[in-house]
Amino acid sequence: MEMTVLSELRMRPVTADRWGWDASTTARLVLTGVVIFTLLVGANLATPLYPLLQARLGMTSLDVTVAFSSYVLALVGVLMVAGHWSDHIGRRAALVLAVLVGLVGGVIFANADTLVALSLGRALQGVAVGLATGASSAALRELLPQRPEWASRFTLLSSAGGVAAGPAIGGLLSLLPDPTRTPYYVHSAVLIAALIPLWLLKARPAIAPAEGPKPLKVLAPRKPSISRDARGAFWMAAATGFLSFAVFGFCLSLAPGYFASVVHADSRPLIGLLAGVTLGASALSQLLGARGRFVVPVALAVLGVSVVLVGAAAAWSSPWLLVAASITAGMGQGIAFRQVFNEVAGKVEASRHAQVISTVYVITYLGSAVPVIGLGLAVSALGLQAAVVGFTALCGVAALTLAAISLRSAVRS
């Protein structure tokens, strides 16, 4: 059955043949990973630029967290409303929509001259990532039906890699003229380059095509439901994800100012690199083959201790401790989240994979919004260093609590 992007969006097959790129499985894997990676790079280009944007627009620390959180809240809203769309319109159509919305969001953000415009651009970037999240995860799983663990690894590697690379790339591109706009123009060119092969691709049929005279009914929001067998794994994955993204949200919003005070430097490429260290370590951890019943509790314990040490680095004026703790925090998070993500993904039926995984990400991404807004308020009241110490201590306690719960479950099994 031949499908174009427009016919996929209408959920109706095309009657006439058309030329298309009949890509190999490897090419489809690469293209899917590149799309979600690139969208997440764009969503995080701003991390080292926030000090410049604060100066240009006269924003406070709370304003930065509001702009950052507008992205997360929009992303979460789309996951709740449209997390299942790619099951019905097809993975390719959902990714094309995501790239188009991401282009618009990036251009608006680049040219924003008020907090409202900045937040609108960020929100559209959130919509783009939300549309792509469930679609890319499900597409990778369908392309590797016999290797579900590697499908999860590719999903997390592309996602964490994109989030990690964003600040580093943003810092480097900010050395070019017009530093708050140029990174987004370069990124837009890359998105357009990815859109062309995606548009020309011969798409595979949707896994749950609409039937009847009103196909759009299947796109209506639906209440998330998890099978009884998958509930324990779902809540463990969601809780681990929420905590992980609370730490990531800190790294990508207010951490650049904190890191600058620890290393006594204001180089944007350096600060962007430091902001991405935790996420880069998380991405690289997807290449490790850690196995065993006690992998999750050990990894969560490493995350808990490491994040507390990140908060202690300023008090001890130790850049090396900051870097080492950021790396081990990312490794612990990456290994733990991969294991719990694999478990829930393996227990969900294929026809509901995008919906359930999107629901995991709803809770996960809320970790980047709610705690980070609280951190922004704490900075206004207590100052940056005191607020960071309190925040990292809370995250450490939460990680060790999850480690204990996971250990009890591992011992029982």
From TrEMBL:
Name this polypeptide is given: MFS family permease
InterPro entries, per database record: MFS, MFS_dom, MFS_trans_sf, MFS_Transporters
Major facilitator superfamily (MFS) profile domain boundaries: 26-413
Membrane topology listed for this record: Multi-pass membrane protein
Transmembrane segments: 29-50, 62-82, 94-112, 124-144, 156-176, 182-201, 232-258, 270-288, 295-314, 320-341, 362-382, 388-407
Native source organism of the sequence: Arthrobacter bambusae
Keywords linked to the UniProt accession: Cell membrane, Membrane, Transmembrane, Transmembrane helix, Transport
SUPFAM superfamilies (alphabetical): MFS general substrate transporter
A Pfam family reported for this protein in Swiss-Prot or TrEMBL: MFS_1
Top-level taxon in the UniProt lineage: Bacteria
UniProt-annotated location(s): Cell membrane
